[in-house]
């Protein structure tokens, strides 16, 4: 982590080979580091009663210990995505809390909408967990992802799933 230039890379590689020995079959892969930002969690899952649900929260203690997670039904609209981000109690962290730089909420909204579309278009996708999603001042990076597939459930409705307009 935090390898800034070629000299630092050579030093880090030397430390690894001193510790682990030179690789004989596998070659190390160097990847760009994700930019610093706010760690978030984006999930989609199928609820037996409600159908597909999109969830969002900050990674770590806010969502895991305090239950600070927001949910919306799929398919999500632009408005749903914007409200989802703003409805968690820790939302100020995303908008420049205590002098920190605000993060790219437009990119986060786009990710939420794409995940909603994926789950809505592919009923065999039972759950998706993107964790962490590092949201930076410009853009975001998904560092971990898991997807669970299953045979699509039998549905009596053949059209798109929509909530009625009241």
Helix fraction by DSSP (H/I, runs of at least 4): 25-40%
The residue ranges in which pLDDT falls below 50 over 5 or more consecutive positions are none
Q: Total domains, how many?
A: 2
Tally of separate helices = 4
Characterize the overall form: globular
CATH superfamily of the largest domain: ATP-grasp fold, B domain
CATH architecture of the largest domain: 2-Layer Sandwich
Termini, distance in Å?
Answer: 52 Å
Can you write the helix and strand succession as a string? HEEHEHHEEE
Give the mean pLDDT: 90
Characterize the structure shown.
The chain has about 170 residues and is an alpha+beta fold. The chain folds into two domains: about 1-35, no CATH class; about 40-150, ATP-grasp fold, B domain (D-amino Acid Aminotransferase, Chain A, domain 1, 2-Layer Sandwich). It is about 25% helix and about 25% strand. The protein contains four helices and six strands, in the order H-E-E-H-E-H-H-E-E-E. The protein has helices at about 5-20, 60-65, 80-85, 105-120, and strands spanning about 40-45, 50-60, 70-75, 125-135, 140, 145-150. Strands 1, 2, 3, 4, 5 and 6 form a six-stranded antiparallel sheet that branches. A hairpin with a 4-residue loop joins strand 4 (about 125-135) and strand 5 (about 140). The model has no long low-confidence stretch (mean pLDDT about 90).
């Amino acid at each position: 982590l935090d390898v800034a230039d070629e000299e630092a890379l050579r030093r880090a590689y030397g430390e690894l080979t001193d510790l682990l020995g030179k690789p004989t079959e596998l070659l190390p892969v160097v990847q760009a580091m994700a930019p610093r930002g706010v760690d978030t969690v984006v999930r989609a899952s199928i609820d037996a009663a409600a159908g597909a649900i999109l969830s969002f929260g900050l990674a770590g203690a806010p969502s895991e210990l305090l239950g600070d997670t927001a949910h919306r039904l799929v398919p999500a609209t632009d408005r749903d995505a914007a409200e989802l981000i703003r409805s968690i109690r820790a939302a100020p962290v995303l908008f420049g809390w205590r002098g920190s730089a605000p993060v790219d909420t437009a990119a986060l909204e786009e990710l939420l909408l794409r995940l909603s579309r994926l789950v809505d278009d592919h009923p065999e996708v039972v759950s998706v967990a993107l964790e962490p999603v590092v949201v930076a001042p410009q853009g975001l990076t998904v560092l971990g992802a898991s997807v669970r597939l299953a045979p699509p459930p039998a549905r009596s409705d053949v059209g798109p799933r929509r909530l009625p307009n009241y």
